[in-house]
Amino acid sequence: MSITANDPSRKTWLEIPGDTDFPIQNIPFGVFLTRDDVITIGTRIGDYAIDLGALHQLGYFEGIPLTDDIFLQDTLNDFISDGKKTWRLVRNRIADIFDAKNTKLKDNEDHRNRVLFTLDEIEMQMPVQVGDYTDFYSSKEHATNIGSMFRDPDNALLPNWLHIPVGYHGRSSSIIPSGIPVHRPQGQTKPAESDAPVFGPSQRVDFELEMAFITTDANHLGEPIPVDEAEDYIFGMVLFNDWSARDIQKWEYVPLGPFLAKNFASSISPWIVTMDALEPFRTASPKPEKELLPYLQYKGDKSFDINLEVFLQPEGGEEQSLSKSNFKYLYWNMSQQLAHHTVNGCPVNSGDMMASGTISGSSEDSFGSMLELTWSGSKPIKLKDGSERKFIEDNDTVIMRGFCQNGNSRIGFGEVRSKLLPVYQPKKK
Amino acid sequence: MSITANDPSRKTWLEIPGDTDFPIQNIPFGVFLTRDDVITIGTRIGDYAIDLGALHQLGYFEGIPLTDDIFLQDTLNDFISDGKKTWRLVRNRIADIFDAKNTKLKDNEDHRNRVLFTLDEIEMQMPVQVGDYTDFYSSKEHATNIGSMFRDPDNALLPNWLHIPVGYHGRSSSIIPSGIPVHRPQGQTKPAESDAPVFGPSQRVDFELEMAFITTDANHLGEPIPVDEAEDYIFGMVLFNDWSARDIQKWEYVPLGPFLAKNFASSISPWIVTMDALEPFRTASPKPEKELLPYLQYKGDKSFDINLEVFLQPEGGEEQSLSKSNFKYLYWNMSQQLAHHTVNGCPVNSGDMMASGTISGSSEDSFGSMLELTWSGSKPIKLKDGSERKFIEDNDTVIMRGFCQNGNSRIGFGEVRSKLLPVYQPKKK
């Protein structure tokens, strides 16, 4: 089945900005609360949010095998379970409904009023209930930076790194959508000058520039997913800010990995951009430096050319770019990650989320965390307001944006934006 | 509200074995498929499974604030969300319904036929949908054994271990109930004699004797749970076999912790024994060896005296005890684990599962894994059929049992039993 929704010549009858992340060729999926306080599944074209639940009730998806309530849900999990063929039929149909040549909805004011929302009328929610969340560590530049800082610049990569798409399990319950603020975490740290650990607010709160993919039901317990079939089970992608507390991490993480340093929050962009929409931006991953075991060898291009940028906005100030990176820098791609994750038979379900790990490039202005940008605080960043940052300060807002661009053709993710609040103060009882 | 269900003098009108794990003082909660292929929430007394959905429809829970369908669900998550007061009301009522002095249900044959099942008429399911699963590492004896084997016997414990209830995130999707077999996982390992890693079946499949607790909705993002309130949010406990692949673990786990070595399967006993039922077996934890930070200091006894035993049954052979341990050996208790887990504001929800880590005692016959029992394979265990085991072999069944005993009073967990199958063979397409 062809992806007619990707037709670059298609125009929409909706009025949309010329430089939007969400042209009619994008058609992402999300969940939002409407002006009537109803939760629905929707898509976005330009600055319009479109209620797919209402469209379906009005019969616009006739002929596509969908249950009546598939879009009247508070997560996309069931729709994602319907599988790739259905996602494609729905996305193609949405492109058709909003095509400049199609007047059916355009000329029906009543239907339009029920289906279309402006962005200020809605509130984006978590798009999926995340069953399990895995974080990979797939940027060679990031792993090398970390290894150089904390171990040995001459042997920065650990022996397994070039053989395994290293990953670990994270916490689903603290994944939140863009816009939800995050409290500075407290925890145990062990200052170098102290014999015993101390308790208090983290002094080294950081972002990590990542992207994550969302899966459908992929396999049963025991059953591996071959690397060249992995993409069939990937629904789409979001921007992912993996908030981190570096001082807590340092004291806790040996031998079982990061825990409280990571699980206080991870923020995502709320619109899931489908793999179909990203298809025109497919590109090659870096060439493997070691011979890979067969289960990690793949055919064709499995990465995507996605421009990424991180901004910091101090309270009351203007936002300022900290770093520019690209998803294609990643050494390990999503197909390898999913093949590795399941090679032991681990089951992957609809709504599972797998993040890339920090996406750093090779130049200093492309690093994906404050830890790397300030080299563990030794080179503070000067902001336009004259202040300096080693790490993130209270009331700073961190914004990540991402988009693919090819000539005039642009497919974007919007943004993930979140503010760091001071330490949580318990309410008096 | 008193826990009248714990009255040790109470007898039931049901005929039950004298030495059962499930006297009328237990009243655990589980989910099962009935002879009519209906999924329901139930409890167990002796060798009877009791359909709580049917009991509720028949009006036996009148006066307790419960939604009509609370027990007609395929998980306990919503019931657990109802909170401790409701759990206690329901458990006290069940004790009353089956009390030898109460003839209402006893004398109603129609009702009895709708409510009571024998164990061979039902099939136990996962009792909860696990939102997030965390595995702790709370046995000092286990951590010391591992450190002695793989690092340095004189500095076996890492510097953070006596300060932090060390834990890490695990995989929810591969937690399965007793009775479901597990395939031997495949993966990358790095033999000492080889320069490059190799791929193949794990040669060191192991069990880990653990217990896990299940939580209710405990906090919001940002909000810590104080250590002395933690027990209010714990619904109950199960036996937990954390299947492990030691050779895969060794190659993958630095620096982000175990991943594929653990996430192929964890098996649990299907009946959740409530904290109320365990109350008479409350006991002290080992005395802390280091001054604890205030958020980990608690009042009173927070551990439980639960006898644990692991058995191995070779294909066609008889089962044989490998190890006897006790939950009370754990250095860190559940209240400390939950307080630590949330001190940074990490949200904990209904159905989350937190396992203890391997529970080893101080003597060699109380170690909780083959890795420790055979000291990394150097001291194989001799089985009654003459064969030896360094680790678990294909078609071996591992069984864990646990119970509290005080004179004639016994509260047990039943068992978690699972067979290791050979490597998964993909079906021909």
TrEMBL record, chains A, B:
- The UniProt record lists the Fumarylacetoacetase-like C-terminal domain at 134-415
Give the matching Gene3D superfamilies: Fumarylacetoacetase, N-terminal domain (2.30.30.230), Fumarylacetoacetase-like, C-terminal domain (3.90.850.10)
Entry coiled-coil feature ranges: none
* Entry annotation: catalytic residues: H142 (proton acceptor)
- Do you know which Pfam families this protein is assigned to? FAA_hydrolase, FAA_hydrolase_N
Of which family is this protein a member? Belongs to the FAH family.
Listed name of the protein: fumarylacetoacetase
Organism (species)? Christiangramia oceanisediminis
The encoding gene = fahA
